[in-house]
Design a protein that fits this description.
Elements: H1 3-7, H2 12-41, H3 61-67, H4 70-101, H5 108-116, H6 123-133, H7 140-148, H8 163-187, H9 192-200, H10 205-233, H11 237-242, H12 254-263, H13 268-298
Helix pairs in contact: 2-13, 4-8, 4-10, 8-10, 10-13, 12-13
């Protein structure tokens, strides 16, 4: 029997579901089931390393314990600070680079390729790479800083004051190209006749940027920051390879603390509750952000 005969008599909708059905089932198995299982475990005192011990239902005790722990709020504060500075720097530098590369000049394509290269690397590899760059004895970062301003030998990832800025610098270096590319797409979607009309009206370059360029690229910039905000809230591998959350807990993001609770202390029920709280937090902020972004796009 031919394939054509097999599908004969089926509606287009049925054929569509026949093709996407396996993918939907796979996504449900990979994403939805683990989420439901984690929510279920969050109401228990389950320890994954205690084989044979049945988990005991304890209600909201894990959630109450987490929300009342001062250490957890410190980790959330570190995460919020990391997100704020990386997103701010990526927005400013990314938009600036997009404005530069939107102009046609010799070597434009080569420069774009070189800027985008860090984004193609694995975050774990980037963390290891920058660990050597930050080395106070042989690292190139010290040499570069001292070339402009003589600070002597200093350890970026060994100082509790400098380490948070170390991970901000690395994340900004790696992911600013993403924001730049999104902004560049927004800039190239602006019709040229708007600028021509502005020039006829004798609008200055600053006025053209303020009233034409910025409103046009802003939705693209906000979309890029949404994606980067979600990813930075979950940031793990790059920071682990770079500082392991140290020195002390200066760079211990919420995701790193979650990993330690789940796979070092084996507090499965407790860590499941923590994971659910993180999920609800980013989901809630994401929804609010999307609503604000839609209102901006409607203006």
């Amino acid at each position: 029997m031919s394939v054509k005969k097999k599908f004969k008599g089926l509606s287009d909708k049925a054929v569509g579901w026949l093709f996407i059905g396996p993918t939907v089932i796979l996504l449900l198995a990979i994403n939805i089931y683990p989420l439901i299982y984690a929510i279920r475990m969050s109401f228990t005192n389950f320890y994954a390393n205690k084989i044979g011990r049945e988990p005991e239902f304890i209600g909201l005790k894990n959630y109450i314990k987490i929300l009342n722990r001062e250490a957890i709020w410190e980790k959330m504060q570190v995460t919020a600070s990391f997100m704020f500075w990386t997103l701010l720097l990526q927005a400013i530098i990314g938009l600036g680079l997009a404005l530069l590369l939107n102009r046609k000049f010799k070597g434009n394509e080569l420069l774009t390729t070189l800027i985008v290269l860090p984004m193609m690397l694995s975050p774990a590899v980037v963390g290891v790479f920058w660990t050597y760059l930050y080395n106070p004895q042989v690292g190139l970062f010290n040499y570069a800083v001292n070339f402009f301003y003589d600070l002597g030998s200093f350890d970026m990832i060994g100082s509790s004051t400098l380490a948070p800025w170390a991970i901000v610098i690395v994340d900004t270096w790696m992911w600013t190209p993403f924001t730049m590319l999104i902004c560049l797409a927004g800039l190239r979607s602006v019709p040229n006749y708007l600028y021509e009309a502005a020039e006829v009206d004798r609008a200055s370059k600053w006025q053209q940027f303020l009233y034409i360029t910025l409103p046009s690229v802003l939705p693209f910039l906000l979309l890029a920051l949404l994606f980067r905000g979600i990813e930075n809230f979950k940031m793990f591998d790059m920071v682990v390879e770079l500082t392991s959350g140290g020195p002390g807990s200066a760079t211990e993001l919420a995701s790193i603390n979650l990993k330690r609770e789940a796979f070092e202390k084996w507090k499965t029920g407790y860590s499941s509750a923590f994971a659910v709280i993180l999920f609800v937090t980013i989901f809630g902020f994401g929804n609010v952000y999307v609503k604000v972004m839609n209102k901006i796009k409607e203006r």
